Amino acid sequence: MAFNKSMSLTRFYFLCGLLFLGAFSLFAYHSGSGSLWDIDEPNNAQALKEMFAQHNFVVPLFNGTLRVAKPALNYWLMWGGVEVFGMNSWGLRMGSVLVGALFVLYLTVSTRRLIGSGPALLTGLVAATILHSQIIFRAAVPDPLLILFVSMSLISYLRAYQFPEARSFNILLSYAAMALATVDEGPIGFLIPGLIIVVFLLLRGNLPYLWKEGRLQWGLPLFLLIGLPWYVAVGVESHWRWDLGFLLRANISRYNAEMQGHQGPFFYYLLTIPLALLPWSIFLPQALRPLWLKRKQLVQRYPVDTFLLSWLLVWVIFFSISATKLPNYVWEAYPPLFIFLGIRLYQALSGEMPFRRRGLYASLSVLFSVGAALIYAGAVIVPAKIPPLGSLYYLGLPYALSAILAALWVWKDQVGRWLITLTAGAAALTFALMTYTEPALNILKPSYFMGEKIRQYQGDNPYSIAAWHWFQPNFLFYAGRGNMVLHQPRHMAELQNILRHNPSPLYLVLPSRDVPDMRRSLPDTLHIQSIYVSYELYNHENLTLLRISPQSAVSLQHQTPPG
C-alpha cells in the first residue's frame, strides 16, 4: 500500500492491472451459480431469448409483445456472453462482470492526471469493493453499461476542460460515450450528463465554452452517428410503436408517477447512498469536510472539485424529484464520492493529512454498529419473516470483525493495515453472500427448478405453460422454449380455452392454496398431476406446478419423468 503521487507510470499501470483482475475476480465469484433475480434480470434474459428465436436483434419482445422498457445495447452485451457461456446465468451476467471491472480500470486510469496516481488507485479500490458494486456488476441489467459510459462522458469532458492539449480527443470521447449510454438506457444517457456540464459551466461563468471550445460541430454529428441508427431501425420495424412507447411509458411516466411500487420520500437517497457505499461511507464526513472548508473559493479556484460536486448533486437531485425511486438510479452519482474518498484516504495514508484518532474510532464504531445490526437481523428477523431461509447472522460478521481489527490497528498507529483490513472485510462479505446466502436463496426461487422438472417430463415433446393468480418473469424464462408464450388466464373459461387450443400437456403454476379449487373446477376428463411444490421468496407462499393433460393421453411414461 505504498502509494505516492510521483510513482512511475510502469508501476501505476501494473497496479491498475492488478486492480482490474481483482475487481473482475470479485464480481465474477459465483456470479453464475444462482438463478436470475426477478423481475429485471429475467425480463432482459427472456427478451434476448425471443430475439434469438426470431433471429431479430433489433426489436425487443417479451412474451410475444413489444418490450419498450429498455433499448438494445444491454441485449447485445448479454448476447456476447451467451455465445461464449450459453443461455444461462453465467452467459447472461458475464458481460456485466467485465463491464464492472472495465469501469474500475477506466476510473483509475482516467483520474490519474486529475488527482494523482496514489489517490486514483485508492479511488478504484473503493469503487471495486463497495457493497453496491457487488450487486450491480453481477446482474444482467443495463446499469453497468450506463455507469461506465456516463462516467466516461463526464470524466472525459472534465479532462478536456483541464488539459487543453488533449481537448479534441477527450470531448469527442465524451460525445461518443453519451451516445452509447443513450443506446443503453435512452435520453437519460445524454440529458443528465449534458445538464451537469451546463451547470458546471454556469457556476464557472464560462457557458460560452460549450460552443467555443466544446467541438459541437464534430461532437453532435458523432453523437447522432452512434446513437441514432438503432432508434431509427427499431422505429421502422415496429412502425414507431417502440420509440413512442419507450418515450412515454419508460421515461415520462416513470418520472412523473410511481411505478411498480418503487417510491420514497425526497430524502430517499440520503439514506440509501451511505448503505450502498459501505464500508467506505464511514469516511464520508472526513472526505467531504475539506470541500466545506474551502467552499468560499471552491468554484473559481478548484474546477475539478466543482465539476465533481455538480455531477453528484445534479444527478441525486434529479432522481430525488422523480416519483419512481430505486437505489440503482443514483449509482452514476457515486464516482465523485469515490474520488473524494480516494483523495482523503491517500492523504491519511501518506501522512499529508492524518485522520484524527477520535474520528477514526467514531467511523469504525458506525461500521461495527452496521455489522451488529446485520447479525441481529440475520439471526432474529430473517428467520421470523422467511422461515425456510434460516439464520443469516454471519452476514454481519465481516463488518463487525473488520471494524474491531481495524480499531486495533488504529490504536497501534498502523495506518495501512486498517485500510487493508477494511478491504478484506468488504471482500469477505461478498464471499459470505455468494458462498452461503445465494444458494439458500436460490432454493426459494422455484422457477428454475420448475423448468428443470418440465424438461425431465417433456424432453423434446411439445407443451404449453400458464400461470394462475401469480406471475414472475423467471417462470417464463426457465419453463418456456424460445419465444413460447406464457398464458395468464384470469377466469376458468380462459384456462379451459387454453387447454383446448394449445399443445398438451399444460404446465400450470399457481399458489398452493388454490390447488383444491382448481382440481374441483376442471373437468374429470383431464388428468391433473402435482409435480413440484416449493416456498417462494417473493410472495412468501408455497407454489405448486401442475401437469394437466387429457386422460386419454396419460401413459405410464408421461406420469413419471424419464430416467
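That was protein one. Protein two is written in the same sequence-then-structure order:
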Amino acid sequence: MKHGQPDETTAALLELARAHGVDTSIRGWDGVERTVQAETLRGVLTALGVPAGSPEELASSLAEKQSEPWRRLLPPTLVAREGSELDVAVHVGTGQSVTVSVLAEDGSRHPVPQRGDWSEPRNIDGRSVSRASYVVPADLPLGWHTLLAESAGETARSTLVVTPERLQTTQALAGQQSWGLMAQLYSVRSSRSWGIGDFADLADLAAISGAQYGAGFVLVNPLHASEPAPPVEPSPYLPSSRRFFHPLYIRVEDIPEYAYLPAASRTVVENLAATLRPANLDTERLDRDSSYTAKLTALELIHQVRRSPARGHQFEVFRREQGQGLEDFALWCALTERFPADSPEWLQEPTGPRSPFAALHRDELADRVTFHCWLQWVCDHQLETAQRAATDAGMGIGVVHDLAVGVQRHGSDAWTLHDVLAQGMTVGAPPDMFNQIGQNWSQPPWHPGRLADSGYAAYRDMLRSVLRHAGGVRVDHILGLFRLWWIPEGAGPGDGTYVHYDHEALIGILALEAQRAGAIVIGEDLGVFEGWVREYLAERCIFGTSILWFERDNGVPFAPERYRQQCLTSVNTHDLPPTAGYLAGDHVALRESLGLLGRPVDEERAADAAEQEAVLALVRERGLLPESGTPVGIQETVEALYAFTALTPSSLLGVALVDAVGERRTQNQPGTMNEYPNWRIPLAGPDGVSVLIDDLPGNARFASLIRAMKLGDRVGADAGA
C-alpha cells in the first residue's frame, strides 16, 4: 500500500474480484466496513475457475473477462420479463451476416430484429469481431424458449426464459387473510406411524386443520432426500438432494401392493410396525435410524410384489418424466449402499454420473437403481395424496413445502450436479449479533457462471419437483438467490465473502415455475440483506417473512399496521423455542449451557426481558392482555400474541403447531450440531405427554388458540367440551 492506496497487484485482484461479482469489502452487523482478505479473494476466484495467483495471471484473467462475451455469438442464457423487450448482444465476424430468431416452447418461430448499427470491431484471438444489439419481442409467452443465431454456417443456441412480471398466484391473495399450521412433519406422529411422522400423517394433519379449524395451508419442514440407508442426517436443512424426497416419510401400508404381499412377508411387515408403534408415544428423542431401517426392510418386500399393468405403466411414465436426473440420483443411492463415503472410488477424477466409475457399475446395479426410482415414485404418489387431502378439506393453498439453502458436500446433488457447483467452497453466514463467529453450513454453492451456461436446468428441475404436488414453497434464506456467503474450505466462517448471483434469472425462474404449478412463494428474508432486496421481491410478488419478536425499528416493536401485506407473519420460527419456552427465557438458558452467549448471562436475560416486555406492552395497548401487574397465564399470553398477528394486514399467518398444543422444547439451536439434539424432539404437550394427530380434533388448547385469533368459523365446538 502507498498513501492508503493498494499496490498494482492488489488493485488488479480487487478489480478482478468485482468483475466476477465477488465483494471485496463487507459491512458487518456492527456497521464497520472491513476489507476482505486477499487470500479469501484468491480462493473464491480459483473456485470460480479464474486464475488469480501471480500478477501475470491477474492481468490475463482481467483481459479474458473483457474478451469472453466477444467469443460467443450469443450469451448462454437470457431471462426476459413477460410484456417487455430484451436487448441481446450478438457477436459475429466483422462483415458477416447473421439471422436471429426465437424458437418458442410451442414450436412457433419469431424473428428477432436488429436495433442500431454494428460496433467498432475488436481483435479477438486474431479475428475481427463486431457487436450489434438485437431485440427480443415483448409478445413472447411465458416459458422456456430457444434463441437462435445463424451466421457463416454456424448456429448458436441460447436458453431464453420469459418470466412473470409479477407472480399472479401470490398477487391474488391481496386483500385476503389465511392462516396455516407450521409443523416439523417428522415430529408429528399418529397411532399408525412408525415412530416418525409420514406423508399419511401430513394428509391427516391437513384434513383436520382445514376441515375442522379452517386453515388455508400447512407448511412443513424440507422433505428432501437424505442418505439412502441409515445412519441419516437428522437436519432436514442438510439434505443429500433437494430435487428428490426422503423415503423415510413413506406410509408403508398405503402402497397398493402392500395388500398383495404373501402371508409370510406380510407378517414380517406387521411385526416391524408393531415393534415401532410404541415409539409414537416416546417424548424423549426421535429415532430416525430405527424407523428407516424397518421401513426399508418392508419396502424391499413390497417392491418384490408384481405391479398391475396399470401401476406398472404409471411407474414407467414417472421414470420417463423424471428423466436422467432420477436415474443418476438412483445410481448414486445404489453406489452409496456399496461404497462408503470415504472409499477412494468417489475421489477418482472425473467424478459424477458420467465418470468411468459410474459407467462401470450402472448395469450391474440396475436392480437397485430401479428400487430407488420406485421409492421416489411412491413418495410422489403419497405427496399427491396429501395435497389432494388438503384441498379436499377446503384449504385454498394446501401443502407448502420448504426449500433448503443447499445440500451436503458428499451427497447426491454434490455428485450428480458436480459440474454446476463450486468446488472447494462452502456457504454460511457472516458474523452477526447472534452468532459472533459466523456460521458454516457445510454446503457447496451453485457456480453462478456454470449454472448460466447450463441454462439453469438443474435449478429448474429442482423447483419443478418441489412444486409438483404443492400449493406453495417457502424458500429458506431467499437472500441466497441474490448473494451467498462463500467460505474457502478450511477457513473460519468469518473469513468469507459474498458472491453475487443473477437474481433476475433465479427469482424469475422461481416465479415462472411457481406460476405454472399454481403455487405461491414465501421467501425467508430474515437476516443481513441489502435494503433494495425486499423491495425487489415485493415488486415480483414474492412474499416475505415476519417474526413478531424481530419486527422493530430502532428497537421499537412495529405496530400491527406496519407489517407487510405480502408476508407470512408468525410469532415463532423453528430456530426459536416454542413461544411458551421463549417467554420463559429457555433460549437464553440453553445458549448459556452451550457456551453460545457473547456477554454475561445476566445481561442477556435483562436484554431479552426488555425486548419481550416491549412487545407485550404493545399487545396490552391493543386490549389483548390485561394491564401490567395482572397475573396472566402462559396459554393466555401465547393466544394474545397470535391474536396480535391477526391484526396485521399480512395475507398469511403462521401458527406453529408446537404453540397450538403447548410444547415448550426447542427444536433447533443454531450454532450447534451434536451439543443439542437438534431436529429430534417429538411433539408433546405441556404435561410432557406425546400429542398424536389422533388427538388434534379434540385438543381444547388448539381450538382455543384459533378462536383467540378469530380466524376459524369451523373451529370444532366440541373440542373444548
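Residues 116 and 268 are 75 Å apart (CA to CA). Keep this in mind for the problem set.
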